[in-house]
Predict the structure.
Amino acid sequence: MKELELLKKLNDMHPQAECELNFSTPYQLLVAVILSAQCTDKRVNLVTKHLFERYDTPEKILSLSQEGLEKEIKSCGFYHNKAKNILAATEILVNEFNGVVPRDRDVLETLPGVGRKTANVVYAVAFGGNAIPVDTHVFRLSHRLDLSSQNTPFGVEKDLMARFPEEEWSKLHHLLIHHGRYVCKAQSPCCGNCLLTDMCAYYQQKRRESKGSK
Ligand code: SF4
């Protein structure tokens, strides 16, 4: 079965694949994921290291003003909206959930700044749930590997969930992210370092094109 072979080969290439955001609690992960939009995990980790040293709980984050939080997270980009969403989501968590991040994805998605992908990451990474958060890497690789032809993240997520065993969903998501970050990059995929050439629609297509042009 192509899917299991794919998982095995991805695992062989990225045995260490897991979430690269640093966190100690589900709340910290939620904040880190909100900060990671349009920003690298490396940058987010630098910012949260400093932030969580002093403000490691929802209650402490709420002691910051909008401007105060903006100052803390400025280097992550889009800091005005990110600070606004973090403070609004945190206020709801403190007032309605006793400061505890809910494990329920539907509830998570009602929080400001939390879309399906963020809810899926928190559910899978902080709570060990089975989910496939579709980010830019998962989306791109799903098309290159012909795992989905859907043009929305939710469509790709549904296709992947239908193809792969549920207990592999979270692992698959980490593997695809690592492969997308370090090997199958958006602009210049390193196909020479990839074990998936024989099952990659994108690679096969490029090969046919280059043969045709000779
Ligand atoms: S063969 Fe190339 S395009 Fe295909 S998955 Fe590997 S790196 Fe990406």
The chain has a mean pLDDT of 97. Residues 2-16+133-208 form a domain with the Endonuclease Iii, domain 2 fold (CATH 1.10.1670.10). The first helix runs from residue 2 to 13.
